[in-house]
Records
---
Amino acid sequence: MKILIKTVLTIVLFLYLAILTKLVLFKYVQVSEIIQSFTFINNEHFLRAHNFIPFKTIYYYLFLADINLIIRIENIVGNVIGFAPFGFILPLLANRFQKLKVVILATFFLSLTYELMQLIFTFGSFDVDDLILNTIGGVIGFIPIKIFLKLVGSRRKRGGKVNEVF
């Protein structure tokens, strides 16, 4: 039963990552055009279109942006919510991901991978604030599963009959 659950969780993780990749990297590109989208641009204007200053975009969306409030909230909250499943699924797959520090690092590096791909291949724009928001999302996903695992573990220690979930 444990192997079946791990297999299902692995499949869910791969499906989630495929969907996340489409939403993050190829949100403006049709699936059939993805290969043609791989281009390299290296000029001064290109680098100015990215944000390398922490909290600049977050501050802009919260206090300065003259755009619809819903769009501002979607941009901030979307970056957080998009990575919450990652922080939720990892601790269920492997014991080494049951520590907050490890989940923070894994989420950060996944987000960094997406941001660097956007920077290098011009799929979007690199934004250091996305790294911050995505990592927060991974932590938010981690918290409920960590609480659940602690509750299950404490019930086992007290001798309560709990079927092994994972």
---
Amino acid sequence: MGALDYFSNFCTVTSTRRRKRRTMQTVEIKVKMDCDGCERRVRHAVTSMRGARSVEVNRKQSRVTVSGYVDAKKVLKRVKSTGKRAEIWPYVPFNLVAYPYVAQAYDKKAPAGYVKNVVQALPSPNNPNEILTSMFSDDNPNACSIM
């Protein structure tokens, strides 16, 4: 039976190729837009993509948000085909970052309430300076009995 099943796979008429399903995702892109025509051109390019469910264009923040069954690289390529400078949205809300005002994260061009999404170095918990600062912390009830 095993050999018969093996050869029957070669003789079948129907195709059993499976397509890889895309996942529902939200893609955010930074696009330099100056006027209503730029906004309309970018919106039309992205809404005509297959799989795009919703498109939000915020010209004030230079931000395009696309939700649907789309690939981020394909959306970026489609936006760049309109002749606009575009990149993946590089900002995160500043309350999600440990040190939002370090030189690498703080950006004057960022929209209000956002900083760049960069990897930040956190102090080591075994660092002697960190141990001393946490020793006299108000958050630690066992820190110091003198206080």
